[in-house]
Design goal:
Helix content is 44%, strand content 11%. It has 71 residues and is an alpha+beta fold.
Amino acid sequence: MAGLIPNQVLVIDNSEAGDSEAVYQHYVGARPGVRGFDLDDASLGAGTTSYASCLAKIRNPLRSYLASNHL
């Protein structure tokens, strides 16, 4: 089985969370060409996101991104 090529990878990060942004930047630096999706939301914290908030702030924007980029 062949591996994924960079443009087949989508890295989701939250630039408002320092660790998330650092991991994203490292991954992109190591594998140029990967796609990135930034949640850019300081209110999204580990263990603090309700189901409704997850749908509104993560799932729906991600769905829109995927649809608008024909992915």
